[in-house]
Every structure is written in C-alpha cells, then in structure tokens.
Design goal:
alpha/beta; 7-stranded mixed beta sheet; 3-stranded antiparallel beta sheet; 8 helices
Length: 229
C-alpha cells in the first residue's frame, strides 16, 4: 500500500506553459492526503525558489520537502537531513566558472545568489521558470554564506565532464540542457526519499515518485513505484 508520494515540481506538478499546478492535480492530492497518504515535494529548487505551489501550500497538503536534489530535507518545520558540499570542491567549481565566464547559482542554507551573471540566467530562471529572487554576488561574497548545498553552473556537457573529474566529493544531475545541478556525492532525490521515510518508519515499497528530468532518475528507480512524466 502506498503511504507517501514524492513529486518533482517543474515539468511534473507544474506545467512549463502555465507555471501552475492544475486544479485536477490539487484535488487528486487532496483526496490522497484525506486517505492518509503523505505528500512530499522532491525538487532541485532551493526553498527560497519554491514559489509556484501556492494552493497546495495554502491548503496544507504538503508534509515535507526534499530540496536542492536531496541535500536539504524537511518534515513539517523540522530539518531531518542536510548535506553540504566539500568546500574545496565548491571553490574549484566557482574558479572553473569564473575562468570560463560561466554563471553559477550558489545555494547556501538560508540564502542563495548567482556569480558571474549573464543574460541566460534571467532568460531561464526569471522568464522561463518565473524565479523572482536571484541576487548577484561575487564569488567571495557567495562563500560568506557558509555551507553550500548546491551549485548550478551554466556549462555544457563537455565542460561538465571536465570539471566533475576534479570534484571527487560531488555528483551532477542535469535536467535542462543549459545547466546542471551539482551536490555532494550521494546527495540526490533517492537519498532524499531515504532521509524522509526513515524517521516516519515507512518502507520503500510504500513510496511512489513522480518526475520528468535527469535529476529525477535516481528516485524513480528507487521508489516502490516510479512514474516518469
């Protein structure tokens, strides 16, 4: 019996065309929760960038969040897992991006920013994904945020292959051609499911996951039932 749902946001819950959760989806999730099924968001977004789940949040239908691809997980108001990236790998990635003049989004525990800003950041995150908070900072200012949980460099596949060979403590999950999400090794949405169900006493067989991108593959393979949109 399924007792917990894990749902990606962009391209799964939220349409890229409307940037909204369909009313039919909201009602389906409300019915599931009324039957005792717990509902969790599993996203590459940081908490500060989750701005498109309004009705689900207003109706109190969400039990917790797997954010920044499994690096920061919460149940209710409680943080149940957080896994920061190795500082030396963060510095190596930011230096790589700076040398090549590539933008990179830097996600800390309570704040985030973009370094080496270029117009493509606004085109994809502001215009396409409707993100309204992405301050620009220098690399040194970004590092003052403390622990870093995710980097999103705007690099192509060849550049990704080159830099990831130098980051032994990290892994990469690409869900859009223009950029990839980099987290500490072992931190992905599969890890997020495990960290959520452990304190709840649930088994993998009782979970169901929905996703549409490359960063969703680990959790779709890991959950009791995986649904690729």
């Amino acid at each position: 019996m399924i007792k917990a749902l894990f749902l990606d946001i962009d391209g799964t819950l939220v349409s890229f065309a409307t940037h909204q959760v369909p009313a039919s989806t909201i009602e389906a999730l409300a019915q599931a929760r009324a039957r005792g099924v717990r509902i969790f968001i599993a996203t590459g977004r940081a908490t500060l960038l989750i701005n498109n789940l309004g009705e689900l949040q207003r109706r109190g239908l969400i039990d917790g969040y797997v954010t920044v691809n499994g690096s920061y997980c919460t149940i209710g108001q409680q943080v149940v897992y957080k896994g920061a990236m190795p500082p030396e790998d963060v510095r190596a990635m930011l230096d790589f991006c700076t040398t090549r003049q590539c933008p990179c989004i830097v996600v800390g525990e309570h704040d985030l920013c973009v370094c080496n800003h270029r117009p493509i950041v606004d085109e994809l995150f502001h215009d396409f994904l409707k993100v309204d908070y992405l301050p620009r900072r220098t690399v040194e200012e970004a590092l003052q945020m403390g622990d870093i949980f995710q980097l999103t460099p705007f690099i192509d596949v060849e550049q990704e292959r080159e830099i990831m060979s130098r980051l032994p403590g990290c892994e990469s999950g690409r869900w859009y051609p223009a950029f990839t999400d980099v987290t500490a090794r072992g931190n992905n949405k599969q890890k997020g499911i495990d960290e959520i169900i452990r304190p709840l006493g649930l088994s993998l067989e009782e979970t169901m996951a929905f996703g549409d991108g490359g960063n969703d593959i680990p959790m779709l393979r890991h959950a009791g039932i995986g649904v690729a949109m």
